[in-house]
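Could you join me in thinking about how sequence relates to backbone shape in a protein? Label the sequence line and the structure token line clearly, so we can match residues to local backbone shapes. Once you have written the record down, we can walk along the chain together.
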Amino acid sequence: MNKIGLIIRREYFTRVKKRSFLIMTFLGPLLIAAVYIVPILLAMRADNEKRTIAVIDESHLFEQQFVNTKNLTFFRLDNIPIDTAKKMVQEGTFDIALYIPMTETFPPPNAVVFSERQVPMSVESHIKEVMKNESHIRKLCAQGLEREDAEELMESIKTSINLSVIKMDKDGNEKKTSTEVLFILGMVLSVMIYMFIMMFGGQVMQGVTEEKSSRIIEVIVSSVKPFQLMMGKIIGVSLVALTQFVMWIVLTGAIYFVFTAAVGINQPEVTGTLMSQQISSDNIMNNEAVQNILSIVGDINFGVIIVSFIVFFLLGYLLYATMFAAIGSLVENNTDSQQFTLPVTVPLIVAIISAIYIANNPSSSLAIWLSMIPFTSPVVMMVRIPFGVDLWEIILSVVILAGTFVAMTWVAAKIYRTGILMYGKKPTYKEIFKWLKYK
């Protein structure tokens, strides 16, 4: 046991002192924080950026309907060919050209927007909303209503619906939830599990392969047993992974709070801005809807999620790391490992592909079975847990995963002790099966 401890310390300190570890430890939180910060900055910039829009309306149905707003200024270009307007956009006279062609049908079947830059979603929504409202008003006028009456009717039937989803447990307790929020959270957790297992499991395989190809492994196994060497490597790299994960959480949180404090962003206001650009047709999101989202996030049991993430990551990593270590002992370079890594990684690929379907239906038979199969359960369970999973399912999944790790450790040790000292020949699957029978 003391020798395993020495190997663990060697693997741990060798890796944490590497420049690549330090770079990724500090670069990772920046990338994670950027996922949240960059959309906020873009939304703030888009909200304040002013644009000029040239309107070429050959149908003459919407000439008076495009009214200037805080950030959008419309210019009617009568009797100007669209090619001329496009050239004016290229020259910088206008930011956007809106072309509504002549048509014999009503409402016009299409309209075209020309721009040198990507048109923001909010601008597209505004143009569509103006044209849709005018089309509805004209249809009402065609039924005999005066225009003023039609406009009043259109205004009166505008309704904003906030749909609240309440989840009830067996005791009758109620909790507000949101499928969209839980879907995003589950997908992020599953992708992180997949990424960590592949990244750190690959490090175990690469380390074993490098030591074997350099022949240093012959010196090491003269003083320690192959099983001790394998377990020391696996546990040492797992501690490196946990260290990096904890530092990512701490540094990401620090970057986020420093950013919000420096910019002076109010969380509800930011959430409202982002959601209003994507959800509300008239680009307005009321405070009640924003507070509902924040309330849903606040009701999520992050304690259970964090503990589950750590448990499933560790067990999933240990399971795959033993297989990666065995693969590393079979080959003398990383190129030759492709033959053996594909069968090992296929279950993880199946799990991450199935995650989208499972997030849409976390209680389906497919979701339950994949969360019990040990080779897919680390990814699939982290998709389901935010939606709420019975405790017995989590415990059963953990027990099966832990039991499979123990069994796979025995198998991997059999392969490792023989393969680690084999040179000059790539073993076949038939030979590997024979190694399992050796005592």
